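INTERNAL TRANSFER SHEET
From: sequence group
To: structure group
Subject: Solute-binding protein family 5 domain-containing protein

Please process the attached sequence and return the structure record in the designated field. Keep the field labels unchanged so the import script can parse them.
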Amino acid sequence: SFLKFGRLVKIYFYTVTVLWKLMRTEKKILKTKSLLILFVLLSQFFINSCKDIDRNTIAIGLNTNPITLDPRYATDAISYRLIRLLYKSLIDFDEEFHAKPELADWEKISPIHYRFTLREKLNEFHDGSLLTSEDVKATYESVLNPEKISPHRSSIAMIESIEVVGRNIIDFKLLYPDPLFPGRLVIGILPKKLISKKHNFAREPIGNGPMKIVDFKNDNHLKLLRLHDNKIIEFITLKDPTVRVLKLLKGEIDLIQGNLPPEIIAWLDQKKSIHVKKKIGNTFTYLGFNMEDPIVGNILIRNAIAHAIDRESIIKYVMGASARKAEALLPPEHWAGNS
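Return from structure group:
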C-alpha cells in the first residue's frame, strides 16, 4: 500500500542520515559497518515488497550527469567515458598507455611533421556520411580556435598547421618537436559540415563510435543504441549510492558505476545474484595549492601538510583498503609511471 511505501521511505532516509553521521568519526567505524549491513537488509525487505520491473534494455546507474557530449569541451570523467562510446579518435591507448592507432595509422616524417592515414573500414559517421581528412582538420582547427574556448586547446598548442594531403591522408606540422604528439590526438572526430552549422554536439552527438544517440532530452536519462546488436543502453543518473544499490537489487538497473561505500561493496560481493568486478584504477585524489599564496606557497608549509595527512588510515578506514598510496601522478602500470 502507499502508506506502507511511505513509511519504508521515511525509515530509509532516516537510516541513511544516521549512518552518514556515524561514518564521519573513526571511533564508531565498527558500529557503522554493523548498522550499514542492517540497513541493507532493511533495504532488501523494501525491495521485495515492490513489483518487479519488465524492460528490454540494459540500464546503467551513474553517480552524476554528463556535462557535455561534445568531445571538444568534455573534461569530467562521466562525459569522457560516454564520449568514447559515441566517437572515435585518431589514436587510442593500450594497457600501458602507449599510443596505438584507432581511426588512423601514422608515420613520423620529421620531428615536427606527422602524417596520419585514415583506416577505410572505420570511416562512416552515424548519419551515414563518410569520415575524411577534412573532418579531422575541421575538428582540430575548431579546438585550436581561441574563440571556441576549448579546454583542450593548450594540450595541442604545438600544432602550427594542419594540411589535407588526400581524402584519407592528413599532415600535422608542429611549432617544436614533441615525441609524444600522436598521443595528444584523442579528440573524437566530428563531421565538418555540422561544425560549420554550429550543431549542438553537446546534446545531439554525431560520431562514429560503437554506439549512437537515441534520446537525451532529460539530463538524468540518456539512451544510446549499441550498433552491433541494436540493443538500447540506458544511462540513468542516481547520485545517492544507496539508491543505486537498491535499484540494482530490485532489477531496475543492471550495472552501477561510481562511488560506493566499501561495506556495501563487500556485502554485494557475497550475493550470488550480483557480480562485483574489480580492477586497478589510475585515478587519484589530491590537494591543490595556490602557489601565489604567501602561506601555502611556502614549500615548508606544504611539506608539513603532507606529513600531517595519515594516508594509511584514510585508505584503511575511509576507503576500506580499496586504494593504494600514490607516489606520483602516474600509476606504476603506466609506461612512464616508474620514471
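Handover comment: The first helix runs from residue 2 to 23. Residues 279-339 form one domain.
Transfer complete.
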